[in-house]
């Protein structure tokens, strides 16, 4: 049962959570107390039959916790909240009324997987969701599109989409995604160009000022030709082709051994 | 759902058809009742000689006997065998709808055993009992699945009518009672039959589409089976568990399960496969025949490989997925005998091959069994091959329903990048220099800016060789010849040789020798040696050959 003490804490959390701007520290303290309360009530990881209202409240608390973690940029904490919410989304899905926060949080999780470059996990998670929701729900569509663009290399679309996030919380992840994209583009440029005008390199890498590009170029070891206004990429010499002697010998020996057995 | 159901049935059909041939070409066909009795004799022989081969032969004919069985026949056989013993009654209870509690049965059994110790030969073996129970279970399943189809013709028969609802409940209860009975008997000679019972129980749940409800019990049984090295049952259970996970799309759970539960004789699975070997050539048949002698049944293995292939595909490890699916095709029965399974595996195989950047063989799409089922996939392949994004999108929207039903839709979406890559590769082969704008127009890309990034990525990923000249906005295409060619050839040669070796070794291992046959051979060898000795002696004495050989001269 949810005690009256928990109830009042829950209401406090709701208040602190909905205030603009969100009172991160108050929420943190309240969440910690609430989690202890939930554990005592056996609701944090519910296993038996529970009162529907209680379940909804604990789901609400966890959802707020997840969003709070994103707001305070604490990804591991988001991970924990999300896995705790899984029980509510999966096992209680036919008992509980659907939560309005479910898809935003699922979308956040997807985009988190993208930023961590866990593409396989991304697809596994996606595959578990019904297809028609994925392509209609704006919260899910956003990460799905991002993934597609990233994979095919339409980086400018990803860049453009950073302002079209369906919820405020997505911004945090999208921003960190930009760092990943930049290094992706950089590695593409190293392979695809001999040299680039500085101005164009700025636009391609989405830098607004030249100094940003210069520091970035130094990190990657690019040569900057100030006079010619050019960025030069170190050309890699043709890789020397070596005959894999050991491998060849080993496989020949195996053939000999097997043939011996047959004959 | 309906398709996969068909698959299960078809796969079993095959087992009976291929193996039935040698055992039934008798001049006078047996009546079903006699046949069942003959089967029971075989089972008894298997138990007494500790040779599971006979039981396996009976079980291979299961689908065959299952089709002929009806209530009267079963009743007759059971009455004949069991006369009035309580065990017989409890089995009959399942047939008429009164399933007795498993606990009472247990008592029945132990009492009969201890009471009639001296005359145990009169009491039929528990294996017989379970076999009969299995037949009854299948009989109920058949009557359930026949009912609604006749009435509505609706392929999705998840909603059952009143009668079949009751029948279904009976099947569930009887199935559970049988499983419970097997557990209480705990005899190793029961293992092959118990695998079939589990499979049947899985089917019962599947009819109503609630296989996931059975999962807890399955996991429990899987643990027991693996402790007892009950290979047949373990294989069946693992497949059922995987299937239940896939039905609820719990891929993460399925993947974890795979990493923890080892499939029996996994040495066969990790085998390397030759790339591009004919999928429906002689190789397949020889492999299947070969494996029918191996420890777990080839159909279960094929199923397992298929499930693993699907899970790997979702995890983006396409090479592993491709290996597993290819093996599944090889180990599956022939296309005509298991069309459902064949189609299903090929759909996935085509998609995975495309995702790997290969183009599936055209012959696949001309196969009579596959042609219709793979129609949409063929269109997709064409689009990927020509690298035309617009054709790809059109096909995608035309067949989206079919793809969604096959659960391959998201995979085909992943193909979009492959389409673009193929397009770029074709362009880079055809032109030595092409402007980015032209690429953009030809590939139906949204903007020139995108085209530049995409081409850059393609160069980095090694799809094409070339350089972008940004100032002039064009792509200069380099030569395609690659130095690493030699290594690749050796590698694939290695793979193929490895596969052939393994095939050879497996066939040697699978050979059976009759008992004591080597004695005869030894005797013959002894004789030969004796003769040789004599010959040597005669040669030494110099009185052989010379005269006779030169006699004609």
UniProtKB/TrEMBL annotation, chain A:
Presence of keyword RNA-binding: no
The protein in question is named PCI domain-containing protein
Q: What is the lineage of its organism?
A: Eukaryota, Fungi, Dikarya, Basidiomycota, Agaricomycotina
GO annotation terms (biological process):
proteasome-mediated ubiquitin-dependent protein catabolic process
Domain PCI residues, every copy: 76-250
UniProt cross-references to InterPro entries, sorted A to Z: 26S_Psome_Rpn12, CSN8_PSD8_EIF3K, PCI_dom
Mind telling me which PANTHER family this protein's record contains?
26S PROTEASOME NON-ATPASE REGULATORY SUBUNIT 8
Decide whether keyword Repeat is in the record: no
Q: Which residues form a coiled coil?
A: none
Note the superkingdom of the native organism: Eukaryota
A single Gene Ontology CC term? nucleus
Q: What family is it from? A: Belongs to the proteasome subunit S14 family.
Which keywords does this Swiss-Prot/TrEMBL entry list?
Proteasome
The protein's organism comes out as Clathrus columnatus
TrEMBL record, chain B:
Please provide the Gene Ontology terms (biological process) for this protein.
Answer: regulation of protein catabolic process; ubiquitin-dependent protein catabolic process
Question: Known PROSITE patterns for this protein?
Answer: PCI (PS50250)
Which Pfam families did the record assign? PCI, Rpn3_C, TPR_PSMD3_N
Output the Gene Ontology terms for molecular function. enzyme regulator activity
Segments for region (Disordered): 1-31, 524-553
Q: Where is the signal peptide?
A: none
* Acidic residues composition bias: residue spans: 541-553
The alphabetical list of record keywords is: Proteasome
The UniProt regions of compositional bias labelled Basic and acidic residues, in chain numbering, are 1-18, 524-540
A Gene Ontology cellular component where this protein is annotated is: proteasome regulatory particle, lid subcomplex
Entry's PANTHER family? 26S PROTEASOME NON-ATPASE REGULATORY SUBUNIT 3, 26S PROTEASOME NON-ATPASE REGULATORY SUBUNIT 3/COP9 SIGNALOSOME COMPLEX SUBUNIT 3
Q: What family is this?
A: Belongs to the proteasome subunit S3 family.
Please report the name of this protein according to its UniProt entry.
PCI domain-containing protein
Q: Which organism is it from?
A: Clathrus columnatus
